Amino acid sequence: MANWSNLYELLDNLIQLHKAMLTLAGQKRGVLIKGDVDQLMAITTQEKKLIKAVDASENARQALVTQLFADQGIQRENGTLEDLIKLTTSPEEKARLTAVREELKRIIGELRQENELNQQLLKQSLSFVTMTLDLITDTPEDDYFYGKSNRSDGHRGPTRTFFNTKA
User: Fold this and answer.
1) What is the pLDDT of residue 158?
2) Torsion angles phi and psi, residue 140, rounded to 5
3) Which residue of 111, 159, 160, 165 is surrounded by the most CB atoms within 10 Å?
4) SS3 (DSSP) at 161
5) pTM across the whole model
6) Region entry Disordered: which residue ranges (predicted)?
7) What does the alpha-carbon distance between residue 31 and residue 49 come to, in Å, rounded to a whole number?
């Protein structure tokens, strides 16, 4: 028989894990701005561990919620906090579950915003790296006019090398 105290422990654990992920996302933003690849790798490793922990906690929560529903004679596979709020008759339990749900929604919303910002920073960094690589590996104009053609129509397409050996 599942009990509510186990559920609250799991929910508190989920909140703490999401807060830790939010903290890491903020650290990641600073690291992306600095361009510190080693620190970025360390943060990514920590994020992977947190994601595994969140996944394990979420699976345990789903199993516990399924059990709570079964104890009430209801068959439900993927019960949500909203479903639990509707299930319980105690005003205290409803208030506590509502507070937990709102806290999780708030933290996840902030985490989503941080991740979107970090994604934009990564895209900008990638664009900068691509532009820099294009500048470094760009072939000189005279390579289009001189040399053996690679195509049957005589047009020489761009051939890129990592370093310009003619410089």
Assistant:
1) 54
2) -65, 155
3) 111
4) coil
5) 0.74
6) 148-167
7) 19
